[in-house]
Structure formats: C-alpha cells, structure tokens
Amino acid sequence: MIFMEFLETFWVILLELAPYLLLGLLIAGLLNAFVSRNFITRHLGKNNFTSVFKAALLGVPLPLCSCGVIPTGIAFKKQGASNGSTVSFLVSTPQTGVDSILVSYSMLSLPWAIFRPIVAFVTGIAAGMLTPTENNVESNQVNEEELSTGGSLFDKIFKYAFIDFLQDISRALIVGIILAALISLFVPEELFSQYLSYPLMNMLIILVVSVPLYVCATGSVPIAAALLMKGLSPGAALVFLMAGPATNAATLTVLWNSLGKKITLVYLGTIVVFSFGFGVLIDYLLPSHWFLVESISAIGHQHHLIPDWLSMASAVILIAALSFAEIKKLIPHKIELNTMEKAYKIEGMTCNHCKANVERALNTVEGISSLEVDLEAGVAKIEGNASHEKVKAAVEGVGYGFKGEMS
Fold it and tell me: CA-to-CA distance for 275 and 283, rounded, in angstroms?
C-alpha cells in the first residue's frame, strides 16, 4: 500500500517535471551548438565590471552543474579570463540553467522561476567584484578550431542534450525525485511548521546541510517543493536551491587547489551571505503566497498549460532517456590499446563536461597525434610521442588528478 502511494507520488512529480525538463534539455543543446566557448572567452578577459557582468549573464542560462562548471571555469581562466569574471561565472552558473528555470516554473511557481535566475545573476556579479585581481594565471590563446567539439549539428544539439548532458544529471535527478516523493509521504507536516516563527533557524539548518552536499540545480527543485509543502520557509528553500547546487566538498577542494584560498573563500562566502540575504528578503519583505507550494497534486493546477497527453508522453520519454543513461553507465568498459597507444589514469572526471575539458587540454599538448578519453573508466588513451610530464601538466592544469600510465 505504501509502495503504491510512493509510486503514485513519484509519477505525479514526473508528470509535472518532464515536459519542462525536456524543453530545457533542448535549449541546452541549442546553446551547445550555437554559443561557442571561444565566444564566451572573448567576453571574460578584463578586470572590470563589464566583464563580470557578462560572465554572470552568460552563466545563468548554461546548464552546468558544480562538477562541470569548475573545470570549465578553470579552462576559461587559463584562456585569459580575469579572476573576477571567472568567479562570477563559477557562482552564477551552477545555481540555475534553462532546464532548472523551466522545472522551477513547473514544480514551484512563476515567481520562483523569475527569482532564481535573478538571485544567481546578482550573486555572480557580487562575487566577481569582491574577487582579488592579483595572481592571474598565464593565459593561453585558444582558437575556435581547438575549441570545437566536432560532430554534426544534430549531434551537437540532440546527442548532447538527451544523451551527454542528461547522462551527467540523470542520477542526481532520479535521486531528487525519489527524495521528493519520500519527503511528501513520510515527513510529518509539523516538522518545520513548529519553527515557522524562526525562519533564520530554518535557513541555518538548511545551509549546514547544503554546503557539503551535492545536488544539481534541476534535481534540487522537487526536493525544495516537497520541503515547502512540509512547512519549510520559502527563504530556507531558497538557501537550499542556491547553496546545494553551487557548493559541495569536492567543488571547494578543487577550487582551493586550482584558484587559491582567497578566491575559494570569496566563492563560498558570497554564496553563504547572499543566500541568507535573499532568504530574508523572501521571508520578510516579499508576499509569502508567491513562494508557497500547497501540495504535489496542486502543482499542475497552478499553471495548467500542458495537456495531459503531452505530460504523459514526456514522462515516458524521460523515463526511457534516464533508463538509457543509467544502463550506459553500468556497462563495463574494456580498455583496448594498440601497440602505439598509452593509457593514463585520470581522477576526478564526473561528467561529459569534465571529459571535454580533459580532451581540450590534451589537444594542446605537442606530440599527441590522436587521443580518446573514456569517462566511465577514467582513462585517456593517447597515441604519439608526447612526454609523460607534458600530459601530466595538461591534465592537472585543468583541475584533474593524474595517476600515471596504466600498465
């Protein structure tokens, strides 16, 4: 009986989330195809407000989670981006994206869908302006040919959106929906309601949990919706939606090692302070009914723009795509080398953006005639006469661990 109730709740959440998530994935594919990395890099190179502003503006719609945005930001930094614009991009990007904005509209409300990107944008600008300008890393000019990921337009849009990118977020998204369904069923209504007169306590508890935790911007939405229904204050929900996707223990460690202590403290401090600040704004100054969610079943009726048949079709497509993504991860990968290839073990690659960053870094190494990076195995297969030291420097230069040649 309880299991059937769980399945029913899971299905309702999926029905409301799927159409908007699929649309968001499509937009992500279009961004990947038509907004080049070289275009982004050209606008992030100066230590001024304009560069920081552009970095935040470009970061908000990009569908990158914290694990993907860190190496991307480091790569931008090495290609000439300023400290301020790099941190602005790192702060604004993981908090939201086109997919999570649409899912926020679907599962929360229009005010949430508007407020989240504004918060990410403002926080990114603040972090960029507070970032120290010294210790700039020597830039490497990278031309458009080096940055191109290759492949047909179809691959750049649809393969990227519905296979590569979805594979990056599939597990976090599934866990998020499952947790949302479990919270809806098992968390008592009075758990947070008894603290409604202490919203700052709500925020503090959520912040302590969110900072070390990894959750993607899209996967965090159903969890936030379920917590709101159980009485969590909207301000505390915003703290979770900001700090959860933007920070986790692994992200902070990589930042500390790659960009230094000062920049890492600015990154973390800005997210903590501004999440509290915007949380207070929601709880004390803005109309509370804008940000409340009454029940899972009522979510779809707040803005019933999607016909039932389309919601069901989208849910079925999403289930199939998520299943394919997870099955692909479980298939064992054999490392087969020809007599001219060497295989190097690389640590820290967690998504297809990580894989692309390693490929771009290795493509700049003199002496490599061909290469293939296997994400699941954590291995780079290289053909050519490039030295061990140059390969190591390229991999570590974009924030990944180099564990040496495999025997």
Answer: 12
